[in-house]
Amino acid sequence: MSTTRVERIRAALQERFAPTRLEVGDDSALHAGHAGAREGGGHYRVFIVSEAFQGCSRVLRQRMIYDAVGDMMHKDIHALAIRALTAAEAESQGH
User: Fold this and answer.
1) What CATH topology corresponds to 5-32+39-93?
2) Angle of helix 58-69 relative to helix 5-17, nearest 10 degrees?
3) I want to staple 76 with a disulfide (CB 3.0 to 4.6 A). Which of 20, 47, 49, 72 is the partner?
């Protein structure tokens, strides 16, 4: 049985960041016909809360996540919407 892309993304982020909250969604169906979708890459969204982001800029957090999913960005993922927060940020924003 093969692992779905969502499960692979979730596993990579779980391993790298030990998040207290992690949501991975597949929005690929919303982008049917889009060039990246035609080539096989999916559209995904990530909401992650981890202390690993403490002191990191938004751009650095995104780079860290791109690094964690590695080569999936070149073949399985066409677009990745990221919301990465620390626990304190999540709490202050009502998450």
Assistant:
1) GMP Synthetase; Chain A, domain 3 (3.30.300)
2) 120
3) 72
Which tokens sit at 51? 């202390």
pLDDT tens, residue by residue, 55-66: 999 999 999 999
Beta bridge mates, 48: 22, 84
The encoded tokens of residue 50 equal 């981890």
Boundaries of every domain in the chain: 5-32+39-93
Report the alpha-carbon distance of residue 43 to residue 85 in Å, rounded: 21
For the stretch 1-13, what's the b/e string if a residue is b when 16 or more beta carbons lie within 10 angstroms of its beta carbon? Answer: eeeebeebbbebb
pTM of the model: 0.86
Cα separation, 85 vs 56, in Å, equals 10
In angstroms, the CA 47 to CA 43 distance is: 14
What's the token pair of residue 84?
């990465």
pLDDT at 22 over 90: yes
